[in-house]
Amino acid sequence: MTGTFPKLTDARLRTAAFFAIAITLSADFALHAESARQPNIVFFLVDDLGYRDIGANNAETFYETPNVDRLAASGTNFTNGYAANPVCSPTRYSILTGRYPTRAGTTNFFSGTRGGRFKPAPLNDRMPLQDVTLAEALKEHGYHTFFAGKWHLGPDESFWPEHQGFDVNRGGFSRGGPYGGKRYFSPYGNPRLTDGPDGEHLPIRLARETSDFIRQHRGEPFFAYLAFYSVHTPLMGPKELVDKYTEKAKRLGLTEQEAFAPEEQVWPDAKQERKVRTLQAHATYAAMVESMDTAVGNVLSTIKELNLENDTIVCFTSDNGGLSTSEGSPTSNLPLRGGKGWVYEGGIREAYIIRAPMIKDQVATCDTPVISTDFYPTLLDLAGLPPRAEAVDGVSLKPLLDGQPSIDRDALFWHYPHYSNQGGFPGGAVRMGDWKLVERYEDGHVHLYNLREDIGERNDVADRHPDRVKQMRNRLHAWYQDVDAKFLMPHKDGKTPWRP
Hints:
The structure is a single chain. By secondary structure, the chain is α/β, with parallel strands linked by helices. It has a single domain (38-404), classed as Alkaline Phosphatase, subunit A. It has helices spanning 10-35, 66-74, 88-97, 134-139, 202-216, 239-251, 283-305, 345-348, 375-382, 398-401, 466-483; strands at 40-46, 76-78, 81-82, 144-149, 168-170, 222-227, 260-263, 274-277, 312-318, 352-355, 365-366, 370-371, 412-416, 427-432, 435-440, 446-450. Helix 5 runs parallel beside helix 7 and helix 6 crosses helix 7. Residues 39-384 form the Sulfatase N-terminal domain.
């Protein structure tokens, strides 16, 4: 083709340059708008899962958790992650409000009023409606919100998920476990979950409901909160998986090993010694852990299938430590002491994972102590949203995810003025650096442990460090006043429990 092109005048050059710049800016803006989209949030909460139950925290675990382990490998695994309480409802409250449960008097599982040498502290058995939940905070900024699984945060419908910021509720009501119908298998007898085909497995169903919600809102920011009933009692699993782990335990020679050791007995007039499980070998519990892990994998696969991995924050944690001292004692938390219901590490240290794709070069592991109250401000921060005006006790972990060595906080606190169903004593604790002080509420006796040297809390060094004990105890008692902590009450016999 031959010919001549028109000569471009200065005006034409300026016009052409203007359109070229406009097109470039328009493309850049579109790319920026896409990258600046509010991230989705998927939150996995497992009931009663022990810190040492997943492979990411225990290479020798009896259980198989490949999906959770891959999640840990793709995000940040906090090796000193904690629940705010050694039992379920208070920690659930802390995640959804960013507040220590003691502030609301929600210090035991809801309906937990067991007594011992003294009466327990008063218990508020509901999450106050005036507290702004994470779901409500996100809804204010256009998020679609979804809840599936165990709620256990209020006695009647007015306190259930749909009245606490969630658009959709699949399975959340007052009960703390799957106690209706066939329990972990359909029919469920759950007023917020329709029955599936006979024998359908609950964790798989909850994962499917979560995946369906994600597909429905794939083009909009969403918050999907999957709070498994697993691995809480009743201990039930699919037969093929129970058979698998029964054979595995035999193959490894675990059925011939001693599985229990003595633990302190707290209940007065108990007729038998308290035992704690020291060996992971429970086939049914292992089946429950694998089913939970499969359900996590199903949701993560949906996120990948929809090409949402770069737009979705994923969190994974538990509400308290593994069940090791009662109700079948299905798991061992060793070398951590105790388990669910105890303020020892076995009752409060948790799997704690955050994958935040908007952070380039996210650190793989972090040993800075963090706690369940931190999820609330962290997720708002990662989503680019302003912090809430309401006071929260958690702090944003974004700097830690980004590789900074520390955050501006000197202590973590626990307050459990109850006699746990699992045998744990009423007590409080404070962690400052490597040091942890435990205070018993019956008589005010304290213990001091260096967790870096003594993760099993067996070597009480309080007598060797009186100045440190005084400092940490003063810090703990000041916190009691700040959160208006309540303590044990006397029985009619007139004996008075210790008071700080």
